[in-house]
Design a protein that fits this description.
heterodimer; A: mainly alpha; 4 helices; elongated
């Protein structure tokens, strides 16, 4: 499981995964969560070209997009939010 | 908005601080903070490319396997919503070419749905099931969150909604097509798409969405008219109106709220004119067909009740007793709020294209009146059969309680037949075995009672002739006395639990203060049942005295007194039930 349905304002990756990612960064390895997610995105990208699409069944694609949805909701959101740190806030607040 | 954007980094900052304090942070959690290189999927890292890939994948899911609704649904109802719920993601989405592809796919699917004559030959017709339109146009609408500029977001919404508007106009202009299943499914698709964009209403795009809808009201009514025979179209139109009110009401100033209210009223009237929702006793033939028909009615009536409930939210100056007494603080705050919202609307009005001269007249559109006219339409449709659906029952009594609390004076001014039917349903609710329904009804009864009490104290007429004694009722009493009698009977003789005691006490206090003689009558009847048992009789007399005078009860309806009275009622019921019930 890479992500749980976090019942809160901002979904966050589960603690165990965040910890695992942090440890990887500490040891200067690739973040295993990120690389697995990247592989998933690659898998989804298979459908983008004509040849690959023949290999993928709609059912498989359904499952992949379901995973990507969970992933997008939790990991991507928090990564995007973190990368916003330090940016001036005046563009974000609507007066 | 702030919470969303600072919350995550605050969290990260806290954890980063902890990690530093802990020295090395082995075994601690810190998320993405303190890293020299950006994390893999952040905006600065590969996030944008990943998002682009996901959007393209979603596009392929939607278009590559026509007829595979499972994968289309996965893309439209799970993947795209997940990518459009955060501003940072939306901001990236709307600027990607893949997003434009998705917008085009949706408008193409909508216009080619069910063989519109304008469909280009040679191009593969794209067909989405209705719920895909719903999910997709909601995601498209939400992406407007990512545009900072108001003009940009208006332009974006226009780009998304214009194709929908064209199809809607085409549907509205061809009422005969609706008789054909293909025409009906096209209407369903376009209504679902509209529902999606209504659900996606956010502060940033609200103006543009409202302006689109205010120009489409006529077309929507035309669709409703031509779709009277279709259960699906009628239900969806009502749901669309309900969602429109629910999502827009909180943003609208008085003038726009008036426009919306007027539309609701027309929808309700159109529904009444269509004659749907009435089930004849012999209609339906077989039992399952009839059950189906009842269910349709239930859905439509429920949507209508919910719509009316939401309409009350768009009211900017709810009449309350304090402000009607003049110059209270709350009244002035409300007036100030109304002025400021009117001012902000001035800014909106130019773009929204709502005629300024008309809006001042419409501003007087009375929300309470709309709701009561709506209720008058709905009440005859609510049959015993429909009230067996708990959701509908709750919805109705919640609305009733709200109306009696917020607009008692309007209730008092209703024509007698309408007032009688309202009170008839209230009595039904007071006797209802469901605790929640009974609780709502009790608070409604309490509201009307305290309105009458305050009116009498201030020397106003209050309910006036509505409360006149009626020989057809038990004891020939007025409506309030009758309600009090109903509540007392339920509490003393019928209910075994103490769940409703507090709610009943709140309702009984004003009713008893207003109808003292009637209460004495009820007390007399109660004692008469104990004739011949002097001990019990004395006990009940004591309990009655304690009820009306114990704990320093005064003859005012205020918070402190209500608290005292709750205690009194609870003691009274424990004392009395054991003596008067003979099971």
């Amino acid at each position: 499981m890479l992500a749980d349905a976090f019942e809160g304002e901002i979904p966050l990756p589960p603690d165990s995964l965040a910890e695992c990612g942090a440890r990887a960064a500490h040891e200067e390895r690739d973040n295993p969560v990120d690389s697995l997610a990247a592989d998933y995105v690659q898998l989804a990208c298979l459908c983008l070209d004509e040849g690959g699409r023949r290999a993928i069944s709609p059912r498989l694609m359904e499952t992949v997009s379901f995973f990507l949805c969970m992933y997008g909701r939790i990991c991507m959101t928090s990564c995007f939010l973190n990368s916003w740190r330090g940016e001036p806030l005046d563009g974000l607040i609507r007066t | 908005m702030m919470a969303e954007d600072t919350g995550g980094s605050l969290h990260a900052a806290v954890f980063a601080h902890n990690a530093m304090a802990g020295g090395g942070g082995e075994g601690r959690v810190y998320r993405g903070a303190n890293k020299a290189k950006p994390s893999a999927f952040s905006e600065a890292g590969g996030g944008v490319q990943a998002l682009d890939a996901l959007l393209q994948a979603a596009f392929v899911c939607l278009t590559a396997w026509p007829g595979e609704t499972g994968v289309q649904k996965a893309a439209a109802s799970t993947l795209l919503p997940a990518l459009t719920r955060r501003r940072a993601l939306c901001r990236t989405c709307v600027n990607l070419p893949a997003w434009q592809q998705i917008i085009d796919a949706e408008s193409h699917a909508l216009s080619s749905s069910a063989g519109v004559p304008g469909a280009v030959p040679g191009v593969v017709a794209l067909h989405f099931p209705p719920e895909i339109h719903l999910g997709l146009s909601e995601a498209l609408g939400r992406a407007a969150e990512g545009l900072n500029d108001e003009a940009q977001s208006q332009e974006y919404i226009a780009r998304v909604l214009t194709p929908v508007g064209q199809v809607l106009a085409a549907v509205a202009q061809a009422p005969n097509d609706m008789k054909h299943p293909a025409g009906e499914s096209r209407a369903v698709a376009v209504i679902q798409a509209l529902r999606g964009s209504v659900r996606a209403t956010i502060a940033r795009s609200q103006v543009a969405v409202f302006s689109f809808f205010s120009q489409s009201f006529e077309a929507l009514l035309a669709v409703q008219r031509s779709g009277t025979h279709s259960a699906q179209v009628s239900k969806l139109i009502l749901k669309l109106t309900e969602e429109l009110v629910a999502n827009q009401a909180c943003f609208l100033g008085p003038a726009h709220a008036g426009v919306l209210c007027r539309h609701c009223l027309r929808v309700v009237e159109e529904y009444r004119a269509s004659g749907r929702g009435k089930i004849g006793a012999a209609e339906g033939g077989s039992r399952s067909l009839r059950a189906e028909r009842v269910k349709e009615c239930y859905k439509e009536v429920k949507a209508m009740l919910r719509m009316l409930t939401h309409v009350t939210n768009s009211d900017n100056d709810i009449e309350d007793e304090e402000s009607s007494r003049g110059g209270s603080q709350r009244g002035s705050v409300m007036a100030a709020a109304a002025v400021s919202s009117a001012a902000s609307e001035g800014r909106v009005r130019g773009g929204a294209g709502v005629a300024t001269s008309a809006s001042s007249a419409l501003a007087k559109m009375d929300v309470a009146q709309v709701v009561f006219i709506g209720l008058n339409t709905v009440i005859p449709l609510i049959t015993d059969e429909l009230l067996t659906f708990p959701k509908l029952c709750h919805q109705y009594f919640t609305l009733l309680a709200h109306m009696l609390e917020a607009y008692p004076a309007k209730v008092a001014a209703l024509p007698p037949d309408m007032f009688t039917s309202l009170m008839g349903t209230l009595e039904f609710g007071l006797k209802h075995e469901d605790v929640e329904v009974a609780g709502e009804s009790l608070s409604a009864a309490g509201a009307i009672g305290s309105f009458q009490h305050h009116s009498l104290v201030d020397g106003r007429p209050g309910l006036g002739v509505h409360n006149a004694p009626d020989a057809s009722r038990e004891g020939g009493c007025g409506i309030l006395a009758h309600l009090m009698r109903t509540v007392l009977r339920r509490m003393i003789f019928e209910d075994a639990s103490m769940d409703l005691v507090d709610a009943a006490a709140d309702a009984l206090l004003p009713l008893m203060l207003v109808e003292r003689t009637a209460f004495e009558g009820v007390a007399g009847e109660l004692l008469a049942t104990l004739e011949g048992d002097a001990g019990a009789r004395n006990h009940v007399v004591g309990a009655l005295r304690e009820l009306t005078a114990g704990n320093g009860l005064t003859d005012r309806v205020d918070r402190a007194n209500k608290r005292r009275f709750r205690r009194n009622v609870s003691t009274f019921l424990t004392e009395t039930r054991s003596f008067v019930r003979h099971n």
